[in-house]
Each structure stands twice: as structure tokens, then as C-alpha cells.
């Protein structure tokens, strides 16, 4: 019976991944099960060096809460929106208010619990520069509201931001289609505006505040749950429409709705999270319990906000822990380069006369921004196909944004020629690090690397 179920599961997984591959038009790859390390991505045609292997869409993703003051991006595809002036003005506005978008390092100031700041996969931000010239409020607001135009910004057009239809004033989009897709995928349940479909906007506000104060990974977990509930409701409605003679049990529909998330998960958050350097081994049990309690508080708040009786199974601590654990082990950093950086580089590259004229206007803004002029959009996201890629310290592929990649999708490029049937691997860490450091970092992902480089290095240590 067990093996029959396993075979059924395998067929369902194959079907799911084949559909995704077709929808992404990346037919040169397939997802296969490897007996020792689970799923893996394999080439089924040859790739040349620098060739695109996969452009994977986000299943659920967030911009880090702390990054929202740095960049105004579409809440669904994470493309920059507004205008160069608006991006610069908004950033200077927050800077003048003393709100910095630094991703970490401020826990001591905020007095937060050490453990809750931890997010194993988070990248480092540039940090805020204290040495900057402050511009007068009027100058900053005229940039934000479009009264001041900077030279050559028409070379960097950005889509006008569209406000969330639910009225939350929190989510903005680059297009109507992104607004609709986000509403249908999860935002209708997680919107704090008046047209929200949550059961308590107040509780939702509390849940969001708790996540922002502790760990914004909870916002991503909420998206995964909202996504599943809305998918379940849609599938149920379609099922009723078809007037199916044999009505599918609700539990089976929920399992089907849940598949895109459940297919990726492996371990509970409090079991797989790496022990931070400053937590003593003897305190490990207490640390893991603290993490579990934190998840429990967050889940209770979420339950009050969006609970659905028919989807009750989704609101167990076990499932919540597994969803966050899945993000911990599978997520990729979501990074979108800033058009503001491109803009200032463009000005710098102008012929001397034009450059001098332009810089007379732009220089005060660049000085006021300081090092932060190039801050990119940063977040974390789960990508269904990319997350099947295994690690190697001598990878044949990498996640890399090209000039034309202006949104949050994961772009995987061949580092060298990859032959048919070869496994496509990426590096989860900086593979240039010494052997012991690499192994220590990979232990956070729950494995010890046995790639050819590690085997060679291990014999010489
Ligand atoms: C992003 S997932 C990769 C896909 C995964 N194999 C699966 O079945 O879903 C990361 C997990 O895959 C496994 N993994 C990835 N690379 C590995 C490697 N080189 N050796 C052993 N396990 C690996 C580890 O369990 C890791 O936590």
C-alpha cells in the first residue's frame, strides 16, 4: 500500500512539475527524484555557457519590511514603480524622518529579542550612511509629488503605481493585471483596507505588526496559507459549476489546493533553524522552544484574522512550522536592481558638458542619498522550480539577473556548458570560502556537501 501511495505521489509530482516547466517555457530541464537527496533539476538538452536555463515565477514572495522605505516596488512582481524622482524623494523623505531601511544590525536599538531577528537566508543590506547632507523638506516633497523633474529621467521610465483596490494604502502595483493577480492569489484575505475579505481587519493589523516587530517570514507564511484557502475556494466553485456527479470530498480538494506549497516542505522551522553564533549549545533546547512559541503567537493572531473552517487543517502549528521551515531551506533572496543606481551611473557617463550641466542639478540629491543611492529591492521568495535545484560547491549554474530582468523572477544561467542528462546545480553559499566554512554554512541547510570539490578538499584537511 505504501509503495502504491509513493508511486501515486511521484506521478502527481511529475505531473505538477511538467506543467510548471511547460508554463515557464523552459523545456530544456526536468525535475527528477534522486534516491539520496530527493528532487533535483536535470538538463534534458545541452546548455551553452551563459545560456538561460530557467526563469521561474514566484509562488509567494515578500519585500523585506525594512526595505520598504528604500524602494517602492510592485507588491506582486516587485518591479520598481513611480518615477526616478519619486524613488529618490521618498527615500530622502524617510531619511529625513530618521527611518532607515537597514536589514539588520539594529536589534540592540529596538531592544528586540535576539532570536527573532534571525533569518538564515537573509542577505546583508548596504546599511545606512550617517554622513549625508539633508535637503530641505520642500525640495524633497516637490520631488515626491512630481513638481521637480530631474534631467534625463525620461530615459528611465517606470510604471505609475496603482493603489490596492481593497483600499489598504500598503500595496501598490505596476499594472492592473498585477493588482488583480495579487488580489486573487492572497491579498484579498491579507488586505487591511475596507474591502478586505479577512474576518477581522483589526486582528490582521495585529498579526502584521507582530511579524514586522519579530520576523517578516510570518508575512510570507500567511501568504502561503491565504493562497491555499483562495485556491481551495476557487477549485470548489469550479467543481460545483461542473455539477460533478461524483462530488470530490472537500479534503481531497484541499490537498490539491495545498500541493504547490506541500510539495516543497521538509522540516519544521524550530527543528531546522540554525543555532545563531551567540547562542550556546547548552541553550539550544530553550532557543528552539522560543522559536516555536513565537510561531505559535503569530499563528494565533493569523487565525483570528483569516480562519476558514473548511480549511481548518491549514491552521495547525505543525503546518505553520513546516511552511516556515520550507522557506528556511528553499527560499532564494529576492533582489531587483535599482533604476536610481542606473540613473546616476548614466549621468556619470554623459559627455563632459552635458554631465556638468546635469550634475549641477543632481549632485545635491546624490550627496543627500550617500551610499544608499544604489539600494536594491530586497526580499525573500519561494520559487517552485528553482527550489528543486541542489547545491554544489562547483556549480554549473547560478542565479543571476541580466540587464533585462527588471522584476522579482528567479533567473538561472549556465556557468559553463551543461550536457544532456547532467544535473543542474547552483551554490547556496559563497563557494570560494574554505572547506570548513562551507561545510558549516551548509549544515544550516541540513546536509554535508559531497561534491567533487568538497571530497578533494576534505582529503587535504
Ligand atoms: C532547495 S532544496 C533542493 C531540492 C531538494 N533536493 C528537494 O528534494 O526538494 C535544498 C535541500 O536539498 C538537499 N540538498 C541540496 N543539495 C544537496 C547536496 N549537495 N547534498 C545533499 N543534500 C542536498 C538538502 O536537504 C537541502 O536542504
Automatic annotation (TrEMBL):
<dbReference type="GO" id="GO:0008168">
    <property type="term" value="F:methyltransferase activity"/>
</dbReference>
<feature type="domain" description="SET">
    <location>
        <begin position="19"/>
        <end position="429"/>
    </location>
</feature>
<dbReference type="InterPro" id="IPR044237">
    <property type="entry name" value="ATXR2-like"/>
</dbReference>
<dbReference type="Pfam" id="PF01753">
    <property type="entry name" value="zf-MYND"/>
</dbReference>
<dbReference type="InterPro" id="IPR001214">
    <property type="entry name" value="SET_dom"/>
</dbReference>
<dbReference type="GO" id="GO:0008270">
    <property type="term" value="F:zinc ion binding"/>
</dbReference>
<keyword id="KW-0863">Zinc-finger</keyword>
<protein>
    <recommendedName>
        <fullName>SET domain-containing protein</fullName>
    </recommendedName>
</protein>
<dbReference type="InterPro" id="IPR002893">
    <property type="entry name" value="Znf_MYND"/>
</dbReference>
<dbReference type="InterPro" id="IPR046341">
    <property type="entry name" value="SET_dom_sf"/>
</dbReference>
<keyword id="KW-0479">Metal-binding</keyword>
<dbReference type="Pfam" id="PF00856">
    <property type="entry name" value="SET"/>
</dbReference>
<keyword id="KW-0862">Zinc</keyword>
Amino acid at each position: 500500500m505504501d509503495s502504491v501511495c509513493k508511486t501515486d505521489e511521484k506521478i502527481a509530482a511529475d505531473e505538477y512539475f511538467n506543467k510548471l516547466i511547460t508554463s515557464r517555457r523552459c523545456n530544456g530541464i526536468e525535475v527528477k527524484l534522486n534516491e539520496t537527496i530527493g528532487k533535483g533539476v536535470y538538463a534534458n538538452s545541452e546548455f551553452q555557457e551563459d545560456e538561460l536555463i530557467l526563469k521561474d515565477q514566484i509562488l509567494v514572495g515578500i519585500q523585506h519590511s525594512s526595505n520598504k522605505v528604500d524602494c517602492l516596488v510592485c507588491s506582486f512582481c516587485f518591479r520598481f514603480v513611480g518615477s526616478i524622482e519619486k524613488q529618490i524623494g521618498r527615500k530622502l523623505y524617510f531619511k529625513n524622518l530618521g527611518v532607515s531601511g537597514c536589514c539588520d544590525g539594529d536589534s540592540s536599538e529596538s531592544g528586540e529579542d535576539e532570536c527573532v531577528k534571525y533569518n538564515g537566508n537573509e542577505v546583508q543590506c548596504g546599511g545606512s550612511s550617517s554622513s549625508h547632507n539633508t535637503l530641505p523638506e520642500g525640495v524633497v516633497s516637490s520631488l515626491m509629488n512630481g513638481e521637480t523633474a530631474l534631467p534625463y529621467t525620461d530615459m528611465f521610465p517606470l510604471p505609475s503605481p496603482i493603489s490596492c483596490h481593497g483600499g489598504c494604502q500598503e500595496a501598490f502595483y505596476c499594472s492592473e493585471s498585477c493588482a488583480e493577480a495579487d488580489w486573487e492569489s492572497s491579498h484579498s484575505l491579507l488586505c487591511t483596507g475596507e474591502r478586505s475579505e479577512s474576518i477581522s481587519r483589526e486582528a490582521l493589523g495585529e498579526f502584521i505588526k507582530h511579524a514586522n516587530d519579530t520576523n517578516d517570514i510570518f508575512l510570507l507564511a500567511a501568504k502561503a496559507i491565504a493562497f491555499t484557502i483562495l485556491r481551495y475556494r476557487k477549485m470548489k466553485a469550479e467543481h460545483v459549476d461542473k455539477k460533478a456527479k461524483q462530488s470530490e470530498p472537500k479534503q481531497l480538494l484541499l490537498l490539491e489546493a495545498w500541493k504547490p506549497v506541500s510539495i516543497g516542505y521538509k522540516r519544521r522551522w524550530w527543528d531546522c533553524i540554525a543555532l545563531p553564533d551567540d547562542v550556546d549549545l547548552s541553550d539550544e533546547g530553550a532557543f528552539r522552544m522560543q522559536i516555536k512559541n513565537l510561531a505559535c503567537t503569530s499563528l494565533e493572531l493569523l487565525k483570528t484574522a483569516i480562519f476558514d473552517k473548511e480549511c481548518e487543517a491549514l491552521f495547525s502549528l505543525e503546518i505553520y512550522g513546516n511552511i516556515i521551515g520550507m522557506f528556511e531551506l528553499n527560499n532564494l533572496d529576492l533582489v531587483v536592481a535599482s533604476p536610481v543606481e542606473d540613473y546616476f551611473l548614466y549621468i556619470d557617463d554623459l559627455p563632459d558638458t552635458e554631465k556638468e550641466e546635469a550634475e549641477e542639478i543632481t549632485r545635491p540629491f546624490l550627496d543627500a542619498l550617500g551610499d544608499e543611492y544604489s539600494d536594491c529591492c530586497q526580499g525573500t521568495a519561494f520559487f517552485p522550480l528553482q527550489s528543486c535545484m541542489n547545491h554544489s560547491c562547483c556549480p554549473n549554474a547560478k542565479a543571476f539577473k541580466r540587464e533585462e530582468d527588471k522584476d522579482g523572477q528567479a533567473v538561472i544561467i549556465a556557468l559553463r556548458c551543461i550536457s544532456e542528462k547532467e544535473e543542474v546545480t547552483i551554490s547556496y553559499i559563497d563557494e570560494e570560502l574554505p572547506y570548513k566554512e562551507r561545510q558549516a554554512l551548509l549544515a544550516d541547510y541540513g546536509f554535508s556537501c559531497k561534491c567533487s570539490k568538497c571530497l578533494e578538499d576534505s582529503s587535504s584537511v
